[in-house]
Write a structure and sequence with these properties.
By secondary structure, the chain is mainly β. It folds into four domains: 125 residues, Immunoglobulins (Immunoglobulin-like, Sandwich); 93 residues, Immunoglobulin-like (Sandwich), CATH 2.60.40; 78 residues, Immunoglobulins (Immunoglobulin-like); 98 residues, Immunoglobulin-like. 6% of the residues lie in helices and 49% in strands. The chain is rod-shaped and about 140 Å long.
């Protein structure tokens, strides 16, 4: 019978002890001690993030519900004694006790009276280190200088005082605002980018550790980089093709435009006058800029296409003012000169035109009137002779440019 009483007493004590609590309000992470010689000891380790460097810890010891009020005596770990021998505070006849404003270290509370037990816990104040700065810059790249480190913590085996390192791992991540290219931002602590930002940015490094504590550091970067950029309008058309250029460069101070149709076809203006391409073909424009700090960049346009000369002659037209096919008008591209003569079946000339340049651009064909008078040419067959020269020096003066056109009304 006494053995049973002893067994029941021990069982009740273990049950109450297992239900008892040691908490650390506001902590950011909890780990547990691990001692190879003493695997039965698993005390909580409370980590507080200490970003402000003023953080302190708090421990709350509570008895299980329904337990008689007890006495609480708090002690701190003494490195010189290798034990919990530094007294902190005492409270009597209470069911919970709070120890606050605690610095890093180990703490134990002894509970007597209602039940006899003890709680042990460790507090660490965690503050990762971060530093962000400019390592180097040139016209072509930006190199960042980062530093990242985390605190190393050691808790102690209460049996023999042996120090055990609390596992912790450093992580980092570079970013920028506005977003710009940063190669391997979470792998290289000193990344170097060859796609430097064209606008001013703030570079930031964020350092975190295994406990979720974070430190950030940043610096403002004023960009020195240049980018040559422009648009062309139009990109394609017949000769003579007048092309306008719109500069979109960043930090250009000195400009050199090379229009691609001769080695002397250049301009040093930021906004050059429209350029005229006379000879059919494909052209590429190159813009080279230089900044005040002598950073240089260039851009080559997509090809500008000047259409080859063409001449296509219709064989019928209907000058009845219905808005459809009302004029005898050749389909042409990139012609430098054209001459059109139209004759009746009797050999009488009823229409002629000869022109180049502005006159050729404005020419809209034969309207079916006799020699530009108010008299309508009679329906029937007419003979034409057309001569033309393209800007590509192609001559149109053969039997293909002599033929018949039918006039219907």
């Amino acid at each position: 019978m006494p053995v049973r009483y002893i067994f029941l007493t021990i069982s009740l004590f273990v049950a109450l002890s297992a239900s008892a609590q040691l908490a650390a309000p506001g902590n950011n992470a909890i780990r547990y001690t691990k001692f190879i010689p003493n695997p039965e000891i698993k005390d909580p380790v409370f980590i507080y993030c200490n970003a402000s460097s003023t953080q302190k810890g708090t421990l709350v010891a509570s008895l299980p519900a329904g337990t008689t009020a007890s006495n609480f005596a708090w002690f701190q770990w003494s490195e010189s004694d290798k034990s919990f021998s530094i007294p902190l505070k005492n409270e009597t006849a209470v069911t919970s006790s709070v120890a606050n404003n605690l610095s890093e270290g180990g703490y134990r509370v002894l509970i007597t009276g209602g039940i006899d037990t003890s709680y042990t816990g460790w507090i660490f104040l965690d503050k990762p280190f971060s530093s962000a700065a400019l390592l180097n810059r040139t016209c072509d790249y930006v190199a960042l200088n980062g530093e990242a480190a985390v605190d190393t913590f050691f808790y102690k085996n209460p049996v023999n005082g042996t120090a055990v390192r609390l596992p912790n791992r450093v992580k980092f991540l570079w970013s920028s605002n506005p977003v710009s290219t940063i190669p391997f931002p979470d792998l290289e602590i000193d990344p170097q980018t060859f796609v430097p930002p064209l606008e001013d940015v703030t570079y930031k490094i964020q350092v975190s550790d295994s406990f979720g504590c974070v430190s950030e550091s940043s610096f403002f970067y004023e960009s020195i980089h240049v980018k040559a950029d422009f648009s062309v309008d139009p990109q394609k058309g017949e000769a003579p093709l007048e092309v306008s250029f719109s500069d979109k460069s960043v930090r250009g101070s000195v400009y050199k435009w090379e229009f691609g149709d001769s080695k002397d076809s250049i301009s040093d203006l930021k906004d050059p006058a429209p350029h005229i391409y006379y000879i059919p073909g494909e052209y590429y424009v190159t813009l080279t800029i230089e900044s005040d700090l002598h950073c240089i960049d260039s851009m080559r346009s997509e090809k500008i296409v000047v259409d080859p000369s063409e001449l296509d002659i219709p064989n019928v037209f209907t000058p009845n003012d219905d808005g459809l096919n009302d004029r005898f008008m050749v389909q042409k591209k990139s012609l430098k000169f054209i001459s059109v003569e139209v004759f009746s079946r009797s050999g009488k000339m009823v229409y002629n035109f000869s022109g180049e340049g502005e006159a050729l651009r404005d020419w809209d064909g034969w309207d079916g009137k006799v020699n530009n008078s108010s008299a309508d040419a009679s329906p029937g067959v007419y003979f034409y002779i057309i001569r033309a020269m393209g800007w590509d020096e192609v001559e149109y003066d053969s039997k293909e440019q002599r033929g018949f056109v039918y006039l219907y009304r």
